[in-house]
Fold these 2 entries.
Entry 1:
Amino acid sequence: MLKDIITMGIETSCDETSIAIVKNGREVLTNRISSQIDLHKKFGGVVPEVASRKHIETIDYILDDALNEANLELNDIDNIAVTYGPGLVGALLVGLSYAKALSFAICKPLIGVNHIEGHICANYIEYKSLEPPFVCLIASGGHSHLVYIKDYGEYEILGRTRDDAAGEAFDKISRAMKLGYPGGPIIDDLAKRGNENAIDFPRSYLEKDSFDFSFSGLKSAVLNYLNSKEQKNEEVIVEDVAASFQRAVVDVLVDKTIRLANVKNSKIIAIAGGVASNSGLRNLMKEKAKEHKIDVKYPSKILCTDNAAMIACAGYYNYMNGKFSDLSLNAVPNLKL
Ligand code: KG4
Ligand code: ZN
């Protein structure tokens, strides 16, 4: 019988301090997450220096919690996977330095993980039998990517955002309407009570065959709408703005993803990243995919947003592919997939 491989994942790229322990890539023994959202809320977004400091204060406790919950000791860990980019440099450095120190102390391999790859891998944890190839839409606060997953660790990137990421658009619109941070879940909630056909916001499809995204035009259209309402002293129905804006984002995400699945002849679409927990996106993707007999996968909400279980899973596949890092590994804030 093969020996189990126990991977520790460490994630500090933005405003979540998280440590997970995962067995054989997909079985989560613990996934401890400490979110800093409440700390950043009053600033309307993540303050990088505050984030780094909070990671430093928190990470020791998270490690203790994780080992206790998994009922393991440091020496039971076979390898340590850590996010080294993309993300906020100071925040990344906290997790990376911590992972290096642990790897050195227990003499176990260090594995650098690309955060975006981690988001994709959240689907492997959710669906134990999911195997490549498949099409994946990654939509988070910092990234919007359309990717064909050829094999573990083998990606063909077909689309990226040319300006704002999908989650960023949600956050900016929420801020403009003074609704709070992060905007995604707030707008998602309001949209359920609004009319998505109330306002005809633009959908940007770019060139005919393009799989890239652009949300800045939509963002400006919503801001213009809000300004003109204010100037005319007219009431804004926030539920309708939320629903119409969300539908405009989701229409483009769904159309392009289904088109790519058809081009690649893929019968599986996975979605990942914070925006993958959006109910409008999940519902429309399932509805449209059904017409093409395509199966839609998405991780549970806790695995959509930043967490270390997805990093451990990605690290496990890197490890199996012989991709290790050494102690010279540095943080790469703009790391590409
Ligand atoms: O993946 P994530 O935790 O962090 C990044 O890697 O960026 O994603 C956070 C983003 C935020 O922009 C947040 O507003 C968005 O995901 N988000 C949502 C929802 N939940 C989180 N966007 C739309 N609908 C949601 N339900
Ligand atoms: Zn993320």
Note: The beta strands are 6-11, 16-23, 27-35, 79-85, 110-114, 134-139, 144-151, 154-160, 268-272, 295-297.
Entry 2:
Amino acid sequence: MRVDRFLSNLPRFNRQQVRLLLIERRIKVDGQVISDPRHDVRTFSRVECDDEVLQAGKPARYFMLHKPQGCVSATLDPQHRTVLDLLDEPDKSELHIAGRLDFNTTGLLLITNDGQWSRRLTQPRTKLPKVYYVETEQAIGPAYAATFAAGLYFAFEALTTQPADLQVLSPNSARLSIIEGRYHQVKRMFGHFDNKVTRLHRERMGPLVLDESLAPGHYRPLTDEEIRQI
Ligand code: URA
């Protein structure tokens, strides 16, 4: 929300006072004096007037998890363990998953309480590649790469998938890079050729690569540098 709106929503300031506070350079957001009324204030921002704290700001949290097989990418599930069960963190209900994986898919899962950050990561328009290692039941034929690059029509969503890059590694394995995350997208792409995916592992989302030292089921906080890259 804009800082002028944030301030005038507080019972103590009217709009005229807010204008003056900004002009008089008495407002700080995250330690910086702010005079632009359009400056963005988030739940993570610390907002001060003179030296009085108006909002302390919640800490933004970001984790990288190596998702194991057999767990649900959801915050709650009545039957199965969820990826959040693997996190030993307070206030887990505030966290969400940036790009889910299917029950038996393994690999990189990013979990955060920062909705803007996770949207940048997952929205197709930011065109960040999601890279998967794939194993299949049948051999991967020569037509696959061109078909995936041209895009496949998904009737249920009435859309054509964005160009995807397939690198065949062996007769039954490949690395696939896609820039969307449609429901069961990778399985449906191989399903177009009646080829069942037998193993699916996400290696990378944009610049963020699964940390090799994380065993399945383990996680770590992202570094400041990793957070900034998105
Ligand atoms: N595509 C799929 O089909 N499943 C996943 O888990 C991720 C991408």
Note: Residues 62-224 form a domain with the Pseudouridine synthase fold (CATH 3.30.2350.10).
